[in-house]
Amino acid sequence: MAFRGKQDKFKRQEKGQSNLSSIGTTKVSSTSHNAKPPNSVKFSNDTERLQHINSIRKAPVGSQMKRVIDILFETRQALTIEQINEACYVDMRANKDVFDSMRKNPKVKFDGEYFSYKSKHDIRDRSELLFLIRKFPEGIAVVDLKDAYPSVMEDLQGLKAAREIWLLSNYDSQEDIAYPNDPKVPIKVDDDLKLLFRGIELPHDMIDIERDLQKNGMKPATNTAKRRSAAQMEGISLKPKPKKKKNEISKRTKLTNAHLPELFQNLKN
Fold it and tell me: What does the record give under GO molecular function (predicted)?
């Protein structure tokens, strides 16, 4: 009996072990069958843009300021720090050095919330431009007007074409100067300057005049040497034609103004 009891106990243990193995195999099989592969790591498709933004924010203060000033100049709008960040990726909230430098920049206006571009002369259109130029009868440098508003250079040319202003070059500084062409603006020329101008004796030959213009940094409108050379090759004479004599009054002329004897001093017989 004791032996049979042990045998039955062994069979029960063997059967239980078999059942556990079966359950484990089924579980593993089921798990492996239903398991999903782990999600693959996806890199940002915007990596290049993020690298560009990072390079801007690590750039020197001066470089970041230029980006902001360029945006303010192009848009001519008042922008907040957040709007500037969106437009050119310069984060002035995170970079105090850029923020402080922008507030002190003479080309920038800051009212506590908005940044905007500040030109030397606060004008916005052609009429205000003309009004400003008329305040400077001695002339105003065009370089001081260039950043007033986007179309200022076109308006300057328009005022010149309408003969409301003069645009002349300063040969010392090679800069254009705008002068008002207003009859109401008195322009006085010193007598010494008048005498100096009248005392200048011009060369008789046009080639010498062109040479003197070139020496003073001016481009002649003509090229006499080239024109003469071309004329010689074509066999064309460039000598001035003799002037025709003025028609003199003869006796055959009908004298309708006999009451003006000074008209007939050259009367021929």
Answer: DNA binding; TFIIH-class transcription factor complex binding
| CA distances for 251 relative to 90, 244, 256, 260, 269, angstroms | 94, 21, 12, 15, 7
Q: State the residue for tokens 């003509």.
A: 222
Residue 73's CATH number: 1.10.10
Question: Would the pTM of this model clear 0.90, i.e. be above it?
Answer: no
Contact 92, 57 (CB under 8 A): no
Answer for the pair 180, 165: CB distance below 8 angstroms, yes or no: yes
Alpha carbon of residue 260 to chain centroid: 67
Torsion angle of the four alpha carbons 169, 170, 173, 178, in this order, in degrees rounded to the nearest 10: -70
Question: Which residue segment(s) compose the domain that 73 sits in?
Answer: 49-117
* Beta pairing class for 140-141 and 165-170: unpaired
Give the 3-state secondary structure of residue 165: strand
Q: Please report whether residue 243 resides in a domain.
A: no
Rg of the Cα atoms in the chain: 46
DSSP notation for 43-98: PPTTHHHHHHHHHHHTS-HHHHHHHHHHHHHHH---B-HHHHHHHH---TTT-HHH
- The pLDDT of residue 198 is 87
Residues sharing a CB contact under 8 Å with residue 149, sequence separation 6 or more, in sequence order: 76, 119, 123, 124, 125
**Structure confidence by residue, pLDDT tens digits, 128-177:** 999 999 999 889 999 999 999 989 999 999 999 999 999 988 666 568 89
